[in-house]
Write a structure and sequence with these properties.
This protein is an all-alpha fold. It has one domain. It contains 8 helices and 2 strands. The longest helix is centred in the last third of the chain and has 43 residues, at 213-255.
Length: 257
């Protein structure tokens, strides 16, 4: 007790307990989990959203801090938060898959860059598509929807009963295949044109064996790839909106029963 008749320790412990789920979601979620976001900003956002959770839900943290039941409750909270962010991260892997397909077909699969968001090496085209998907995610208020899903998760999976069921874990595993499907569909317009070009170049190589394919095929692949990207980008942008909505719907399926 402080000198003002206020018990600060229980409220602080409840806030820290709530911040476990929120912070875990921000670690794996897109935008919030980028390396460019400072750790202090994530902690501040987790604390601010934790205050909202405490104001809207009657959260009862474990009575004892150093106890086995407390450690299990914290692990359950962390697993739920990681699952909420991981589902969205699966959807955001689709542009990287599309970048691999398009870059390999264009002959620039070697053009890799260090992604400042993840710190890993990824195709340049994949980074470009990832930036576009991130901008669409923000323009569709996806970050606000994610925060709303975190708040709703305390109703569907309150602390103390926050373990994911086998059905929910199965849905997360099956949603992992959506990244490959969405990446293939995202790269389909450009990939189809490049496939047609490769067929034409193959027929030319059979008709004129003395033709230098490297001097003809690589510039043609680059030119057709750039032009087809410029033409197909409006349709790719529309499908990126579908990817964002599918990722948010999969996240919503975890918190609404």
């Amino acid at each position: 007790m402080l000198g003002f008749g206020l018990a600060i320790e229980p409220q602080l412990w409840a806030l820290l307990f709530v911040m476990v789920r929120v912070g875990s979601a921000f670690i794996t979620a897109p935008v919030f989990g980028n390396m460019s976001v400072p750790l202090q900003v994530r902690v501040a956002l987790s604390g601010a959203i934790g205050v909202l959770v405490l104001a809207s839900h009657p959260i009862q943290p474990p009575a004892q801090i150093f106890a086995v039941a407390t450690f299990l409750a914290v692990a359950a909270e962390a697993m739920v938060g990681l699952a909420l962010g991981f589902v969205l991260q699966i959807a955001f892997a689709a542009p990287l898959v599309a970048g691999e397909i398009i870059g390999g077909s264009m002959g620039i699969g070697f053009a890799n860059m260090i992604d400042p968001n993840s710190g890993r090496s990824s195709p340049a085209i994949g980074q470009f598509l990832s930036i576009m998907l991130t901008l669409l995610f923000l323009s569709l208020d996806g970050h606000l929807v994610l925060v709303d899903m975190i708040l709703k998760s305390y109703t569907a999976m309150p602390p103390g009963a926050a373990w994911l069921t086998t059905t929910q874990m199965r849905d997360i595993a099956f949603f992992g295949g959506y990244a490959f499907l969405a990446g293939l569909l995202l790269a389909l317009p450009v990939g189809f044109l490049l496939l047609c070009l490769n067929l034409i170049v193959g027929m030319l190589s059979r008709a004129a064996p003395a033709l230098n394919l490297f001097a003809v095929g690589l510039p043609a692949s680059l030119g057709v790839g750039i032009v087809s990207l410029a033409i197909a980008f409006p349709a790719m942008g529309d499908y990126m909106q579908v990817i964002v909505r599918e990722g948010l719907a999969a996240t919503q399926a975890l918190v609404i029963r």
